[in-house]
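Exercise 7b. Backbone tokens:
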């Protein structure tokens, strides 16, 4: 990529007119510069001149059906023009050409959703979530959350969502931020919106169930936990969630059975020994509760809650 074209790419976000002008000059000197023509189309699209962008991108996409960037850009331009079915077709071709590209799956999902095809839309959103590539901004926000800097993460995630309001990964982060900042109802609505977008994104359902427990909505929390175990019977996290939900509705014996099965599979889980101890204490079985707490402490000597409970 030439220095001038890099300059045009850098100008796209803040000054697309300048990017357009630079590309026009490059194309005048080198009409066959495919990269410059793509950046030119993107500059027109960002300016909102979608008719001109369509005039430019259509022949480029038609000239090479295996050109991922052209197929993707054709889909974006068509989507901007409200031609969602055609946009979905172009973006589907692009996703087939480069299935490891995270953003094309989200863009395809948006267009499929606009056509009313929620099943394929949900699958495309799920592909977007599962892609290994992560936007550097979201990676930075994730690190801020790990460090307990919710406000810093919000400052990154909210502008990102202003540009990509249907990104499930960013929406999940914002839900976590809202929960950490003691805005549970906002977090609940965000999680429900993610599930609406991506019904098969099970981590969002797990997080919603946990949140609903905190809000005292035990019945729905239990129903979600049961669903998660049905979907993934061997998932330890889902089974622990179900046991916790059962305890909240008074089904302590059923919760204890789950904890015992988990410990039979792996007796090195200190947190589950402690949870079993809590459950047995509630059931009035002091000897088993004491034994469970002692095993938790032996496995994790720094587990203060187990000492306190014992």
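Sequence design result:
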């Amino acid at each position: 990529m030439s220095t001038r074209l890099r300059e045009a790419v850098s100008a796209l976000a803040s000054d697309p007119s300048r990017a357009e002008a630079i590309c026009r000059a490059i194309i005048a000197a080198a009409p066959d510069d495919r990269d410059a023509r793509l950046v030119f189309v993107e500059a027109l699209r960002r300016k909102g001149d979608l008719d001109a962008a369509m005039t430019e991108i259509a022949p480029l996409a038609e000239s090479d059906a295996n050109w991922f960037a052209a197929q993707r850009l054709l889909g974006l331009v068509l989507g901007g023009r409200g031609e969602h079915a055609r946009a979905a077709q172009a973006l589907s071709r692009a996703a087939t050409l480069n299935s490891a590209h995270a953003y094309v799956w989200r863009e395809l999902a948006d267009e499929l959703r606009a056509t009313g095809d929620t099943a394929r839309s949900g699958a495309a959103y799920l592909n977007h979530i599962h892609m290994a590539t992560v936007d550097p901004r979201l990676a930075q926000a994730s690190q801020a959350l790990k460090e307990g800097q919710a406000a810093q993460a919000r400052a990154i995630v909210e502008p990102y969502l202003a540009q990509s309001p249907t990104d499930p990964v960013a929406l999940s982060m914002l839900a976590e931020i809202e929960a950490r900042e003691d805005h549970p109802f906002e977090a609940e609505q965000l999680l429900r919106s993610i599930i609406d977008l991506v019904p098969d994104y099970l981590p969002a359902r797990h997080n919603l169930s946990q949140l609903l427990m905190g809000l005292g909505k035990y019945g729905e929390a239990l129903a979600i936990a049961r669903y998660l175990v049905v979907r993934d019977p061997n998932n330890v996290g889902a089974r622990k969630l179900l046991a916790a939900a059962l305890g909240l509705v008074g089904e302590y014996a059923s919760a204890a059975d789950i904890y015992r099965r988990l410990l039979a599979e792996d007796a090195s889980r200190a947190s589950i020994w402690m949870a079993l101890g809590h459950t047995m204490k509630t059931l009035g079985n002091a000897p088993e509760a004491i034994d469970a707490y002692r095993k938790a402490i032996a496995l994790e000597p720094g587990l203060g809650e187990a000492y306190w409970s014992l």
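Instructor comment: The chain is about 80% helix and 0% strand. The longest helix spans residues 16-29.
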